[in-house]
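Hi C.,

You asked whether I'd gotten around to modeling the 142-residue construct. I have! Everything is below, sequence then structure, no commentary in between.
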Amino acid sequence: MKIGIASDHAGFEYKEALRAWLSSLGHEVVDYGCFSDERTDYPKWIRPCAVAVANGEVERGIVLGGSGNGEAIVANRVKGCRCGYCFNEETAFLTRSHNDANCIAMGQRIISLDMAKKIVEVFLSTEFEGGRHVPRIKAIDE
């Protein structure tokens, strides 16, 4: 799978770890930055990843920050990017199966790296249920 990934300085450590881990699993990972743990503003890095998701340049996106909240907000401002804020496996499952999320946001200060990997595994392996959820997704995208 082709996956976009981005973070600010507060999510940089997890971005680097997830990028390497996903690559080792055979995924193609496109890194939209940032590229160090030096303080930076997250919209600069998150928006290009969200745009790539919305345009179909990558199949899924992962955005990270200290809490993940600001990153989710930025990603969701891009039409066609549906970013779910995830903090455990259940939130990852529901955002994929019910919301057809094509992007997730996580907080390095909120969860462990082990949990972040579990969330990503669920996010990448869960299918959208369709059915009763389709009209809701259409309403979001309108």
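If it helps when you're writing up: The two ends are 27 Å apart (CA to CA).

Thanks,
B.
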